[in-house]
Amino acid sequence: MLSLDHVSVIFNQGTPNEVRALQDLSLFVDAGEFITVIGSNGAGKSTLFNVISGAVEPKAGHIELDGRDITHWPEYRRSHDIGRVFQDPRLGTCPGLTIRENLSLAAIHGRRAGFRRDVKADEEAWFIEQLARQQLGLERRLDADVALLSGGQRQAITLAMATLVKPKLLLLDEHTAALDPNAAEQVIMLTQQLAEAHDLCVVMITHSMQQACDLGDRVIMMNRGRIVFEIAGEERKNLKPADLIDRFHSLQDGTELSDAQLLS
Amino acid sequence: MAAATSSVDSQTGSGLSSNLRFLLRGLIVAAVVAFIMSLGNVNIGAIGQGLAYGLAGVTVYLTFRVLGFVDLTVDGAFPIGAATCAVLIVGGQSPEVAILAAFVTGALTGLATALIDIIFKIEGLLASIIVITGAYTVTLHIMGGKSNVPLLGEETLISRYSRDFRSWLVEQFGDQMRRQSTNLLEIILFGAIVIFVLVILYWFLRSEIGLAIRATGKNPQMVRATGLNHNLMIALGLMAANGLAGVSGALVAQQFGFADVSLGFGLIVRGLAAVIIGEVLLRPRSVGQFLVAATAGMLIFDISRAWIFSALDLPTTDIQFVSALVVLTALGAPTLYGRWKSYQQRHSN
Question: Which residue from A43, A111, B85, B260 could staple onto B250, CB 3.0 to 4.6 Å apart?
Fold first, then answer.
């Protein structure tokens, strides 16, 4: 489905500020798989997403989606197959436009924008159904300006819009981190429902070990631009947050140690 | 719950009550403006002129507010539109064709700014200054190397109907209307054209492409994530906006009876003032209301300038300085008002 083949991303190459954000990273995601990604700040999680979605071009390596080499496709061309939800709820919806207008925009996805105005009836019905299931009452406020909604409401709308056109791959970049616990729980439930209902391929970055253990089929831990471990299968099923935190810490100690060794 | 929902809807400007309130506010403002006009003995010619310039106010609304693009191209697109229109009319084309052509040349001017911004990554402000500078020469070339093309004795929209309209007016309302007949005709013709253009623009801004253009100014990331090329949307937006400036130039040329290379001078400042005057006085909430507000803002600007002129009995040489003062008032007043408010609040407790 999605494969990253020895991908490297380097920022500020050749300057003292050189950052190797991704180092020779390879990753394969199967159709219908749900992967959670954990790692400390600066581990390269967001860069991984940027390189998959096309916001950042890799220095080396290849990216394939569904058998097609998309390494050098511009971001807007990939977006038909790749949906993305950001941590900042403001990024996924457009203020100044109503909920319905945001929906129309999302529904353009993957085809040319035209002069038609109304959302297709079946698309709107589907969308209203999604919103109604969230029980936030948003389906009755389709003509409200998105700028008036809370972060959780906007994230819920973003999620429904991201799946409106049935992407092959859904990238969730800490999409509950900016929400209060209640809204976060709602959005996580919605995420699970959507992933199961549409058999989506999902990659989710999270800082919550609980989420990493509860959701998905595989956990990936990143550090310094590499994947340092993966937990799948039997081990993943019995995984508890405490285990993850232990491994997280042991890894951190390890790297600090090697830093000290390098410097001495 | 139902009450809460409806109050939110009215804030978004989608509800009927929002449009009603906007209309009411507009009527009050119109009444006040009319009162000032009659008090200051302002000629109704200022209304026709304000309508002719009104679309240039919409240009500035589209670039600054909708696209979030600091664009001064209107200063170049406007005289290019005026020149295109005048040259075509002198060449024997009908005024309607000339206005359409002015839209096209104005839109091409906007495209030039967009391309400079997209290809060379030069910011809008600088890109549009480059375009204005070049546009000066283009305008001169369109006018065959002359800095002025007179329309005296040519068939413009106004001269086409003026004789019939005048005799009809005199017949209906008596001889005292003779003096105002051209002014009234301008108000009717330009009013109809402006309404026609605004209706088309409103429809365009609510289409899918229009939605994408509006989203580009607010959230380009989302536009890209939707699979749309946001650079294309910037280009389309600038073309539509500056096409309107071209149409505005064509109307003004027909009203003045000539096109001049210096016609666009300082227009961007007037356009900004129009947008802000419209926003402050009419408090628009939806796209349609914003379009009306920008046009009305230009109208109010031209009338208040004419009023200051007649009240202070100023010579025409002072026109740009008065413009600058009116603009400064329009831009500065909201800030001063806000400061005064917070000063009051601090000292009340």
Answer: B85
**Which residue type, as a one-letter code, is found at position B137?**
T
Give the contacts of B187 (CB within 8 A, at least 6 positions apart): B44, B47, B48, B51
Q: Which residues of B touch A171 (CB under 8 A)?
A: none
Segment among A110-124, A204-218, B328-342 with least mean pLDDT: A110-124
- Structural domain count of chain A: 1
- Best of A94, A143, A175 to disrupt the B interface (most B CBs within 10 Å) is A94
Q: What's the pLDDT band for A79 if we cut at 50, 70, 90?
A: confident
| Closest approach of A221 to chain B, Cα-based (Å) | 26
- Determine, for residues B226 and A96 on separate chains, whether the beta-carbon distance falls below 8 Å: no
Q: Give which of B333, B286, B337, B278 is closest to B50, Cα–Cα.
A: B278
DSSP secondary-structure letter at B65?
Answer: I
Q: Output the CA torsion sign for B316, B320, B322, B326.
A: positive
Sequence ranges of the domains in chain B: 18-348
**pLDDT tens for each residue of B198-239:** 999 999 998 889 999 999 999 888 888 777 888 999 999 999
Express each pLDDT in B99-116 by its tens digit: 999 999 999 999 999 999
For A7, the domain range is: 2-97+168-263
Position A84 scores a pLDDT of: 86
Q: How many Cβ atoms are within 10 Å of B70's Cβ, its own excluded? A: 14
Binary contact (B225, A108; C-beta < 8 A): no
Measured CA to CA, the distance from residue B223 to residue B211 in angstroms comes to 10
Residues B130/B75, Cβ–Cβ less than 8 Å: no
Residue A135 neighbours by CB under 8 Å, 6+ apart? none
Strand-pair category, A169-173 with A82-85? parallel
CATH number assigned to the domain comprising residue A215: 3.40.50.300
With beta carbons under 8 A apart, name residues in chain B contacting A148: 8, 11-12
CA of A12 to nearest chain B CA: how many angstroms apart?
Answer: 20
Q: Is pTM beyond 0.95 here?
A: no
For A140, the closest chain B residue by CA position comes to B5
| HSE-CB of B184 using CA atoms within 13 angstroms | 15
* Architecture of the domain made up of B18-348: Orthogonal Bundle (1.10)
Query: A45 CB near a chain B CB, below 8 Å?
Result: no
8 A C-beta contact, residue B77 and residue B95: no
Within 8 A of A113 by CB-CB distance, chain B residues are 207-209, 211-212, 228
Q: Are A29 and A35 in contact (CB under 8 A)?
A: yes
